[in-house]
Design brief:
The structure is a single chain. The chain has helices at about 5-15, 20-35, 75-80, 90-100, 100-105, 140-150, 155-160; strands spanning about 40-45, 50-55, 70, 85-90, 110-120, 125-130. By secondary structure, the protein is of the alpha+beta class. It has a domain at about 35-145: 2-Layer Sandwich (Beta-Lactamase). The chain has a 6-stranded antiparallel beta sheet with strand order 3-2-1-6-5-4. Strand 1 (about 40-45) and strand 2 form a beta hairpin. The chain starts with a helix and ends with a helix.
């Protein structure tokens, strides 16, 4: 069940003349409380390209908002973009196989990650990317993260304008 305080804060933020970053700040608090993370990013798929644009990051120094990243891993693309399912990496070897930037991720104390696709009207708009220590992502945590995805749609769509 979605925590009402986050929903209320998000409604207030989106009702005001705010920017999507402020909405993502609130959503990040919900993900921290409900799932937990050491690194969290929100990315948007760049139309007609093989890259993503970072909309928000918990570590602006390493993963700044506005930065882009090439989508190079075929397994990631198949699972997240084509099958529109979360990709779960619960071990360092999984991260190394899936993410080209696994060294930067590991340097933040992360050895597990899950990427949740943001699917709207049949298309993947972007992803929520959550990283933590090894074996962090139980099915319960993945389900809680999936439940929080409803919070992501408005700021992600606003970011595309």
């Amino acid at each position: 069940m979605m925590p009402i305080p986050y929903l209320s804060a998000l409604t207030t933020t989106l009702s005001a003349r705010s920017n999507p970053k402020q909405a993502f700040d609130i959503i990040a608090q919900a993900f921290q409380a409900e799932v937990g993370y050491r690194l969290l990013t929100f990315t948007a798929i760049i139309a007609d390209s093989s890259s993503v644009k970072r909309l928000w990051s918990s570590h602006q120094d390493i993963y700044p908002a506005g930065g882009t990243k090439q989508l190079e891993n075929h397994e990631w693309g198949r699972v997240v973009l084509q099958e529109q399912r979360p990709i779960v990496c619960n071990e360092p070897a999984d991260l190394q196989r899936i993410f080209a930037d696994h060294v930067d991720i590991a340097n933040l104390g992360c050895s597990a990650g899950v990427n949740l696709p943001v699917v709207f009207q049949g298309d993947v708009l972007g992803t929520v990317n959550i990283f933590h220590k090894a074996q962090w992502f139980s099915q319960d945590k993945i389900d809680r993260g999936t439940d929080l995805m409803a919070l992501v749609y408005a700021p992600m769509l606003l970011s595309r304008q």
